[in-house]
Amino acid sequence: MLPPMIDIGVNLTDKSFERDLDAVLGRATEAGVTRLVLTGTSLASSEAAQTLCRESPGRLYHTVGIHPHHASDYSNGTGSQLLALAKDPACVAIGETGLDFFRNFSTPEQQIRAFERQLELACDTRLPLFLHERDAHERQIAMLRDCRDHFSRAVAHCFTGTREELYAYLDLDLHIGITGWICDERRGAHLQPLLRDIPPDRLMLETDAPYLLPRDIRPRPKSGRNEPCHLPHIARRVAQETGEDEARLRQRLLSNSLEFFAIQP
């Protein structure tokens, strides 16, 4: 029997899961994905994730944070609200936070301010960081470097960058989160050889569901929605690319995720 898996990044509060959430969780369990970390991207989604976790203790965990897209919503009271949410026993990280200069739904200045405050929160709480970045690597690395001695751990969520960007994160002792992007022969081909450059104890896997359905899933869901039950498919692809035994890889991923998020085995 293969070791169970933890999906370290799933947007379970997304409206696409409203009608069949129990079935989604059931399919995840059947696939061997026994624990999920729900991503908080705003105060509302962080609160919703907390509520779901209280209904499934020991199975669901969550992060609390303000995504860079929502940085303009970060007010003087947001920090205290995030801190209150972070005190919940099921909260295992601060984020999704970081910088996204690609779409700029919030201005770069607003993003930087919100990211600074969440870096401070991670330093104060000693919770790990769950990081987002797009087209802002140099600035984000500089901000992380400035406070690296003060936060505990961080994961570059949904890493899709270059070798140089990977090594910049690894130089800061960050973990790397890989999604179904690795299964895309068009956009993910450059990532496949980089898997071998990630130290064994720094790799974790996530679906980022309902987004990033692995392109090579067969049969392909008509809805196009990704689910946590597809995480083993991503693990198999990683094992194929690295030549590692799948069971050994899954055991390593489990150990990495449990340790990173301080989840009891």
From TrEMBL:
Record keywords: Hydrolase, Metal-binding, Nuclease
Protein's name according to its UniProt entry: TatD family hydrolase
PROSITE patterns: TATD_2 (PS01090), TATD_3 (PS01091)
Keyword Cell division: no
InterPro entries: DNase_TatD-rel_CS, Metal_Hydrolase, TatD-like, TatD-type_Hydrolase
Gene Ontology MF terms: hydrolase activity
Keyword Transport listed: no
Signal peptide residue numbers: none
Pfam families: TatD_DNase
